[in-house]
């Protein structure tokens, strides 16, 4: 793309972001402020993730971009195109082939390797924000590891609903020190973060914060001993490929309440089908 | 400083511009004893409480606290996290207005359990059981455990604050006019409760009050303050029955016998 | 009917872009609007795009306004994104508004003052009657030009300052903060707050300023002075060692004179609220000055009770690029998270039903 630097950002800005990333990796789960720039995409649409990816991409990288687990959702398409134009890197829909995966709200089903980096788009980096809107206050809580407020919220959930009612963006404790928002991934995905071999980077552009989980780091979802964290999933297999342990999207197929449940991770589903797995609902791929 | 005191202060002074709120105040508090600080408004008693508890820094003087292991700590030289921890475990602070120390959008059980959770308690059932136990001890019906404080009366709110404060078995509690905001009829019951809890749990307390009757009921020793200075100190009954300082005499004589 | 997996996101986006371009161009029998027309005749739109876009360039702003079909927040966004790519090669000296080439200068606190009340090209005294004469694009009659020179125009706060009646201006050698480079942190110093306000949303700041006048953190403001005109932008290149003029910009400056404050050591003095905005943006400059003063409540020892006085609240919500991004991001797919919530609610309903059944069975 003429007139723009590789991956859009100038080298000084990338350096500034990489310094923030290094600091973040050194303090797992801690939010590092950074001088987020206005990007050609709006705040709230992945500018943090884009800035992180732009700062770590090299000419040999292979980039996968997903939104809600799918490569083909409009925003994933838009971001992938952005990097194709500004960096000219190879892009892919295959999780196995990617070196950098930028994601919004899901972790791929396939286990990631230690030569991969996953970049999460984060709308709200502060796990305490609903309980304490003032950043001055929440910053103090983090610095003093004073997270009683969050535990009180979980207690209240159990008192009111008999269970913890958080289903996505479920707060985690990283490396036994920092309370962190994993971004709005479903609680189903939380266990994947624990001791993940890949490097996990988190970018919040609008809120101007970066954080990270180094490879092989302990990540524990908050719970009580007698109300342990459990994954919630639809108790049925994918209608297309029959997978029983993947996160499923619910699709409304007709006016009479007809429902179909299919893998949210489109690459995972396609791979399974290519290998011959079939779900209970016969399917046809639409011609492109 | 004596070997056995729990809390001691020497030479505390503090001024707000031209106003001397505290002038050369010394305090000693022994384990398990209740010290009442009495005086009219403007006497400096609340300022003293805030300085003793580390919430306000004096212009001169120091406050020392002896921890359970016997080590002395300069309260105003402690790092903020340590002081914060102290306030959540060994120490307690009961405000005149209970809403200042309660989360109004959290259930009674959650309010009482918070300090336990802040200390690392992670068993919901246990936390809830302890909360219910404490509610009972402060004479709040156990089945109010899931109710919101906004449905509680003033007296109940104060008792809830006390439960929330005592749940971690503090050794030292600071109380700022604990019955000040309540109806006279409710006060008596609350005072009885405080007295029995403090005695049973062997809690030391610094109790600020303008009400001599409260001091007489709850305190072992009394300290009388006037315009920032301590004018008289001693055993409560002795000071109140035989006041030496003219100001104390004035205070005592102006109390209407109930 | 077998389910057909959805494809074609890329094509959908391309089609959307194409349709948007059609919308923007409009009826092709009508000439495309030129940047000169926008910059020349829709100057207030251009001013707002520059102010909130944090970039002074009338032509670029006109382009942004055209590309955004007149949506000024979209135009400001375009300018901000473009700004990110521009190299920065110098810092200017602070502009000297005392030396402004005045087009408009009024004061509400003095009936007359050195330099006089210069009304300038203001809407203030117009009657808001739609002028149907403007329906045609025929040329309009010219106004005659005056010949009198404008005299010295000292700033009103400086006049008050000579008598010690108003708190002194902040003097300092510290580097001002820069929100375009560094993230906002608290406590936020006044320079950072003013920068945030200068690029903040006019509507939001207008509402907050208005709220202070209605009792939400009032400061008894008076419009000490509003002045609008051209100021020189100077830089001092290190090779030269002296400042050179690189161009002019038009700015609007508002100084509010507010509730006096005193203490045991300082006599009562009026306090200041300040606003400086690109272009002819009087409403915004005045709103900024009101909110600036409100946010100083804490440092002036006043009770902080109102939204306009809550620095965190004002600064975190004044940037309309951030705001629109996040509000509009709700349009992005959220079906994965929604699915989790659906499952949650379904499960809780099942348990409630089960509990009710077992209660009924027991009876």
Which features characterize this protein?
heterotrimer, A: 288 residues, alpha/beta, 7-stranded mixed beta sheet, 3-stranded antiparallel beta sheet, 7 helices, 13 strands, 26% helix, disordered C terminus, B: 258 residues, 6-stranded mixed beta sheet, 4-stranded antiparallel beta sheet, 9 helices, 36% helix, globular
Please characterize this protein's 3D structure.
The complex is a heterotrimer of chains A (288), B (258) and C (363). Chain A is an alpha/beta fold and 288 residues long. Chain A has helices at 11-26, 47-56, 74-87, 135-143, 148-161, 190-193, 266-274; strands at 32-33, 62-67, 90-91, 100-104, 117-121, 172-174, 178-180, 199-204, 209-213, 219-221, 248-252, 259-263, 283-284. Chain A contains seven helices and 13 strands. In chain A, the strands form three sheets. Chain A has a seven-stranded mixed beta sheet. The longest helix of chain A has 16 residues, at 11-26. Chain A starts with 10 loop residues before the first helix and ends with a strand. Chain B is built from nine helices and ten strands. The mean pLDDT of chain B is 92. Chain C is of the alpha+beta class and 363 residues long. In chain C, strands 2-3-4-5 form a four-stranded antiparallel beta sheet. The mean pLDDT of chain C is 91. Chains in contact: A-B, A-C.
Blueprint of the fold:
The complex is a heterotrimer of chains A (288), B (258) and C (363).
Chain A: H1 11-26, E1 32-33, H2 47-56, E2 62-67, H3 74-87, E3 90-91, E4 100-104, E5 117-121, H4 135-143, H5 148-161, E6 172-174, E7 178-180, H6 190-193, E8 199-204, E9 209-213, E10 219-221, E11 248-252, E12 259-263, H7 266-274, E13 283-284
Parallel strand pairs in A: 2-3, 2-4, 4-5, 5-8
Antiparallel strand pairs in A: 1-9, 6-7, 6-10, 8-9, 11-12
Chain B: E1 7-16, E2 19-29, E3 34-38, H1 45-52, E4 60-66, E5 72-74, H2 80-88, E6 91-94, H3 108-118, H4 124-137, H5 154-166, E7 172-176, H6 184-200, E8 204-209, H7 212-218, E9 221-226, E10 229-235, H8 236-241, H9 246-253
Parallel strand pairs in B: 3-8, 3-9, 6-7, 7-8
Antiparallel strand pairs in B: 1-2, 1-4, 4-5, 9-10
Helix pairs in contact in B: 3-4, 3-5, 4-5, 5-6
Chain C: E1 3-4, H1 9-25, H2 35-41, H3 43-53, H4 58-67, H5 72-85, E2 101-106, H6 156-162, H7 190-198, H8 202-213, E3 222-235, E4 244-261, E5 269-278, H9 282-295, H10 311-317, H11 320-328, H12 335-362
Helix pairs in contact in C: 2-3, 2-4, 3-4, 3-5, 4-5, 7-9, 8-9
């Amino acid at each position: 793309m003429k007139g723009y630097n590789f991956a859009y950002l100038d080298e000084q800005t990338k350096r500034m972001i990489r310094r923030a990333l290094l600091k973040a990796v050194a303090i797992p789960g801690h939010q590092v402020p950074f001088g987020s720039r206005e990007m050609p995409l709006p705040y709230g649409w992945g500018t943090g993730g884009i800035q992180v990816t732009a700062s770590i991409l090299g000419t040999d990288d292979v980039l996968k971009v997903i939104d809600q687990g799918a490569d083909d959702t409009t925003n994933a398409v838009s971001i992938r195109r952005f990097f194709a134009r500004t960096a000219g890197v190879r892009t892919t829909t295959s999780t196995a082939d990617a070196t950098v995966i930028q994601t919004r709200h899901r972790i791929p089903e396939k286990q990631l390797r230690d030569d991969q980096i996953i970049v999460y788009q984060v709308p709200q980096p502060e796990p305490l924000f609903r309980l304490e809107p003032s950043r001055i206050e929440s910053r103090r809580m983090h610095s003093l590891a004073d997270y009683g407020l969050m535990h009180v919220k979980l207690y209240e959930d159990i008192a009111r609903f008999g269970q913890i009612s958080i289903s996505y963006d479920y707060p985690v404790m990283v490396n036994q020190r920092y309370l962190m928002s994993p971004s709005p991934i479903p609680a189903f995905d939380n266990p994947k973060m624990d001791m993940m071999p890949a490097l996990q980077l988190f970018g919040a552009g609008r809120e101007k914060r970066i954080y990270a989980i180094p490879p092989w780091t302990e990540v524990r979802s908050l719970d009580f001993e007698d109300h342990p964290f459990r994954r919630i999933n639809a108790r049925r297999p994918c209608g297309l490929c029959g997978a029983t342990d993947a996160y499923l999207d619910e699709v409304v197929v007709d006016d009479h309440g007809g429902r179909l449940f299919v893998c949210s991770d489109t690459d995972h589903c396609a791979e399974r089908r290519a290998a011959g797995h079939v779900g209970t609902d016969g399917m046809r791929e639409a011609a492109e | 400083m004596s070997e056995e005191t729990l809390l001691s202060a020497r030479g505390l002074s503090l001024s707000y511009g031209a106003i001397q709120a505290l002038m050369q105040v010394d305090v000693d508090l022994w384990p398990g004893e209740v010290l009442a600080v009495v005086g009219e408004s403007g006497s400096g008693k609340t300022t003293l409480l805030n300085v003793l508890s580390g919430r306000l820094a004096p212009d001169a003087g120091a406050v020392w606290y002896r921890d359970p292991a016997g080590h002395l700590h300069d309260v105003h030289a402690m790092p903020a996290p340590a002081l914060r921890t102290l306030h959540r475990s060994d120490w307690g602070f009961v405000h005149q207005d209970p809403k200042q120390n309660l989360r109004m959008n959290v259930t009674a059980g959650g309010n009482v359990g918070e300090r336990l959770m802040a200390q690392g308690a992670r068993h919901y059932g246990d936390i809830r059981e302890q909360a219910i136990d404490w509610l009972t001890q402060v004479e709040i019906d156990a089945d109010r455990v899931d109710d919101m404080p906004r449905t509680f009366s003033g007296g109940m709110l104060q008792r809830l604050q006390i439960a929330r404060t005592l749940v971690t078995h503090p050794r030292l509690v600071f109380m700022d006019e604990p019955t000040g905001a309540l109806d006279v009829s409710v006060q008596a019951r609350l005072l009885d409760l405080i007295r029995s809890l403090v005695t049973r749990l062997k809690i030391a307390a610094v109790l600020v009050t303008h009400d001599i009757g409260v001091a007489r009921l709850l305190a072992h020793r009394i300290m009388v303050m006037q315009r920032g200075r301590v004018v008289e100190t001693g055993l409560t009954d002795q000071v109140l029955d035989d006041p030496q300082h003219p100001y104390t005499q004035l205070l005592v004589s102006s109390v209407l016998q109930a | 009917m077998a389910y057909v997996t959805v494809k074609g996101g890329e094509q959908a986006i391309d089609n959307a872009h194409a349709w948007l371009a059609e919308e923007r161009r409009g009826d092709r029998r009508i000439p495309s609007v030129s940047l000169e027309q926008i910059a020349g005749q829709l100057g207030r739109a251009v001013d707002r795009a520059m102010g909130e876009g944090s970039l002074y360039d009338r032509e670029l702003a006109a382009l942004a306004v055209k590309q955004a079909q007149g949506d000024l927040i979209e135009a400001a966004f375009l300018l901000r994104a473009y700004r990110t790519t521009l190299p920065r090669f110098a810092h200017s000296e602070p502009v000297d508004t005392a030396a402004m080439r005045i087009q408009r200068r009024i004061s509400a606190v003095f009936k007359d003052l050195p330099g006089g009340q210069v009304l300038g090209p203001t809407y203030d005294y117009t009657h808001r009657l739609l002028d149907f004469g403007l329906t045609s694009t025929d040329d309009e009659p010219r106004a005659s030009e005056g010949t009198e020179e404008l005299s010295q125009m000292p700033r009103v706060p400086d006049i008050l300052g000579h008598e010690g009646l108003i708190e002194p201006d902040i003097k300092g050698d510290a580097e001002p903060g820069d929100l375009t480079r560094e993230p906002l942190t608290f406590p936020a110093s006044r320079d950072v707050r003013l920068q945030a306000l200068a690029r903040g949303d006019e509507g939001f700041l207008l509402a907050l300023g208005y709220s202070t006048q209605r009792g939400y953190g009032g400061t008894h403001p008076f419009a000490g002075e509003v002045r609008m005109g051209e100021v020189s932008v100077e830089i001092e290149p290190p090779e030269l060692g002296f400042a050179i003029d690189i161009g002019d910009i038009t700015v609007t400056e508002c100084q509010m004179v507010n509730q006096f404050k005193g203490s045991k050591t300082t006599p009562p003095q009026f306090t200041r609220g300040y606003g400086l905005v690109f272009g002819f943006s009087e409403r915004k400059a005045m709103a900024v000055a009101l909110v600036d003063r409100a946010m100083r409540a804490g440092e002036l020892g006043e009770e902080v009770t109102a939204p306009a006085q809550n620095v965190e609240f004002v600064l975190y919500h004044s940037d309309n690029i951030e705001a629109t991004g996040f509000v509009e991001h709700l349009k992005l797919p959220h079906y994965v998270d929604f699915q989790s919530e659906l499952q949650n609610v379904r499960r809780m309903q099942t348990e409630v039903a089960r509990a009710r059944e077992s209660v009924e069975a027991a009876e």
